[in-house]
Amino acid sequence: MQWFLKLDKPLRQYLLVTFNYWNFTITDGALRMLVVLYFYQLGYSPLNIALLFLFYEIFGVVTNLVGGWLGAKVGLNRTMNIGLGLQIAALLLLTVPSDWLSIAWVMMAQALSGIAKDLNKMSAKSAIKTLIPGDQQGKLYHWVAVLTGSKNALKGAGFFLGGFLLSTLGFQFALLTMAMVLSLVFVASIVFLEKDLGKAKSKPKFSQIFSSSGPVNILSAARLFLFASRDVWFVVALPIYLASIFDWSHSVVGAFIATWVILYGIVQGFAPRITAYFSAGAIPNGKSALLWCCLLASVTGILALGVQLGWQVQWVIGVGLLIFGAIFAINSSLHSYLIISYAKEDGVSLDVGFYYMANAMGRLVGTVLSGWVYQEAGFAACLWIAFGFLLLTSIISLKLPVQKADTNIQIAE
Predict the structure, then answer these.
(1) Tens digits of per-residue pLDDT, 292-339?
(2) All domains of the chain in start order, with CATH
(3) Is the Cβ–Cβ distance between 84 and 120 less than 8 Å?
(4) Which of 17, 222, 226, 258 is 20 to 30 A distant from 248 in Cα terms?
């Protein structure tokens, strides 16, 4: 503990925020995998499983919109801790006897989890802006990439953990174990996280929840379709496809998706190095986001065609989705840096909250379509819709600002 207290205050707070975010993310990934596999095991249709996450995504939209204002008003430490508390409550709500687990009950628990996830994420991402001077854009990009990449790697670990715990402990005991661990993190967060972190100097008005920044609005629209393109095949369609068509066990499905998300997170963490290599070290801008999105759209179109024509489908899905994940990770990391860069200094969570509202809206659209389209038309159709969404993302990205950066990325930081 002494070594931690001797660290510089910004670094100490960054580590606290990251540790908090990591632990939350593991439970969030595990909970999603538990719900998908457990209710598929109970005989729920793909569309009904998608509907279990409907309130999770709807309340995520609302939470990001209002949560950004709330974070600027009361401080990011409070919004982060509220998110932890709500996640614990959501986990405990699902530990009731299986006879009580109606669709309405699960949707209510998922609503709490959706609020919790987006309060926690918005708080963590916004906090970085307050800890790094505005003239250190390379360092900002690096820290955002590390936080985002590590989070997604751990979310992948959560997917594996969910499948593993379902096979070993069962649904209720798995949830109870996660709630106990997260309770310890909750107590540590209350004790050590800085008071008034990210609190705006001027009291923001509620009307400011809608961004007045052109670049933020354009990036938010691009983010919506980017994440809809992932979740339309990933959230419901992929786990059920692997379990039903390939006859994979819960643990194997969880392990495959976990591996995908872990590698996705690792690539996100190295995104500054990758983009610097292809741009001669320049800090990314709107043109960077456009080029990487066009590449992702091309890969998705090839992947959709391969699945539709039945070309060695297991290899196409296994290898193709890994390539998709790597390029998607760079796109996501670029967006995560750009929103922090575009956001205003005072009350940063207002712009970040609006942006992640669009992110949640994309997840909502993708989640509902994932269950419905897969049920009606199959996995290839989900991938073709993803391709269409990426074309829209590319068109929107044409309007992103293209600044001529005066500085380069400091990879060594």
Answers:
(1) 999 999 999 999 999 999 888 888 888 888 899 999 999 988 888 888
(2) 9-196+212-397 (1.20.1250.20)
(3) yes
(4) 226
